Input
Amino acid sequence: MNMNRRAFLKATGTGLMASAFPISLVKLAFGGQDPSQDFTFGYISDAHIQQIKGTQFVRNWDMGLIRAVQEANLLTPRPDFFMFGGDLAQLGKKEELDHGLEIMSNLRGKVRYVIGEHDYYLDLGKYWQDKISPLYYSFDHKGVHFVVLNSILTYDKWTHETWPSPMDRMLAMARLDNPKGSPFMVGDQQIAWLKKDLAKINQDTPVVVFSHSPIQKIFKPWNFWTQDAEKVQALLKPFEKATVIYGHVHQVQYNQIGNITFHAVMATAWPWPYPETYSQLTSCLPKITVPMNRADPFFERDATGWQFVDMKSGKPAVHYQLPDNPNRTVIFDTVTGKPKDVKYQDYNRRIPPQTHF
Amino acid sequence: MKTSSSGLKGMICISAMTALFAACVAFAAPVGLPPVPVPADNPMTPEKVKLGDKLFNDTRFSTTGEVSCATCHDSKKGFADGLPVSEGIHKLKGTRNAPTIINSAYLHTQFWDGREPSLESQSAQPFLNPVEMGLKDHEPILKIVRSDPEYSNLFDKAFGKRGDQITMTEVKQALGTFERTLVSGNSPFDQYYFKGDKTAMSPAAIRGLDVYVNQGRCVSCHRIEQTQAIFTDNRFHMIGVSANQMPESLEELSAAVQNVKEKGTDIAVLSNPQTSSLGRFAVTRDLTDIGAFKTPTLRNIELTAPYMHDGSHKTLEEVVTFYNNGGRLKETDPVPELLSGGIRPLNLTEEQQADLVAFLKALTSPEFAQKKP
Amino acid sequence: MGKNKCLLSACLAGLLGLGFLVFSLSSQADDFTENDLKRWNQEFMSVVMKGEKLFHSADLGTNKVSCDQCHPNAANTHPETYPKFQQQLGRVITLSDMVNWCIQNPLEGEPLPLDDARMTALLSYITFERRGVSLAPGKH
Output
């Protein structure tokens, strides 16, 4: 690649990927001088397929996943792979998971899965492991080390000893504002596994962790929370380029803690309010986050969406695809070392729909 | 006609302006409509209106000498043409249904895909489209307006410009000004809703209004407000029309985009139905805009059949059926994957659907209401 | 003389009774205690709890969707801003109207009559979760 082209790409930041056209696929490899090549992956999350009765499912959530899959199929250049970020089902039922997988089967490209609490707590992940995916694993792609965690576990007592039936447990975990809820965690077993897994790679290898819960402590009452977040963060500390991408929150969030960049993904199903809108409690939304536009319930897909992620030199740029709204792009600003919305980061550029109360 | 001094000319202009301003104030807000937005660089004057009217109806601005703006925007047909898709020179067919010009002054963008931001900029495009007026460039227009004695007079009066001073800017401004006069409210609905005349609409239409603002959900895009109703939200929505013409594969989408890039949006979308079906996407290249078209106003909708961006719905009854089925003419048709989140099955009864049609027919302004022979 | 005494006593008793009645009537209007307040608050909270239960149940619509799926702790309902011009409906509406819109649309159910106990319960819960926030009618 000649120097002019590389300069052009650097200058335009997200550049060609954001526009998705021209059609001619531009090879964005940095030709050996950088350990990672640039590539894209798609991220679809939080479909919450919900059974009403028999073969009848909530149309609204079905349409959200169907739309995301269809848009993703039209994305050019093609992403290298897709992730599903968890909560495929609403109550973890086989029918819901199967219906969700049926819709996902139309997605053109390889898909890997992250489990969410709505998938897990009915049968503790048995059907998921049998049919869909291991609960935690890692893989490498074009010089980037990817880790998938099951970050929605909780205390053993709550999981095993509290509930008259599996569905009671599932319903308890499904209720976001449950006063009798229990915080998410990764757990010591996975922490130990992660330590061994990361020991195998160099510290200049970019690491990306896919997780359902935030690996941060944002708002405990709604489980925007990972109880052992600091332990996971400590394991990621030695790496120059570390990223965590998480679901569960159904809203735009991003943050930087030390060397780790955090990005939340949108839900295809429905948006959740920002914690600050619950006036009775305080919360800790990352200050750097420019919120998404307020949800307009008169359009079902408002404040939902999916995203594709550009890996540029091992740091992510997240392109949020937001139906009925202007799209949002959050890049990694190499000057400040933090994520930044390309349009709205500056307070003077904020718009009224970004006010939440 | 020259005036004796610039001072007198100024005075005449001012008094004309005052008179027009008074007229504008009275004229500017028909019942049920807000004041007409007028761009700062193109104030309304009677001279511009007269000039614009003549330009609008002039068929000489086409290769065959037979097509003018009025060909597709006929004052006797609600300023549309009654065809599914419009026909230009040699009766060449485009891909899109002619929208009415009535109340287009209230729209934030022009064309079904919003590719032009104003009446002025829109007016110059059809001249250059191979299936509309067919000109290669605007030169033939300028030749005529610069040499024709009647135009010379009118341009002088309207803009104080003659000969080579006359450019497409003045042509567009005159056309825009003329179109800005085509506003109308004061329909039976306006009398009922804003003037409180409970007898202005039939019982069926009154029931239909209730469907419109409640179960029918129409009001969320075709806006009625407390003090005015322009019947559009000026946004773009994919409601499922011509979903089966849309690109389904990446290859088809790529081909359509190539078409747009090579020919320019205006020519590409009118030359190919699949390209046309891209809607707003052809302008923004945003995946979330595929198949989205601008919400048109519903005022005078009774006059402007057939309906939708491709004229594929012949009657209002068909339109209501389409919406009732959640973006499909038949309940058994597949649901388009990229359907706007505002569209869903409505479960209206037959009576509710008929009432809704009755209400839509109450949106016709009296000056355009068709006189039965 | 005895008769008169009886009559006098009867009159006195009547007057006293009347006075007592008047006295007690005038004191009942503004005489409530801490216990009364506690009790009445419990009465209110019992309806708030009914509303909380409804808000988190699948009983209001026909598709098993519950209000809390989009509104955990009734967040994002903004009860303090009603009545307001709801731009998507083109008219000024009340909180009850909006609750009914949600029941009919995302929950695909039938609207509640405005004097229905369930509507009262829902409004009680929604406003209770927003207690302390100043009134801001019309705020979008």
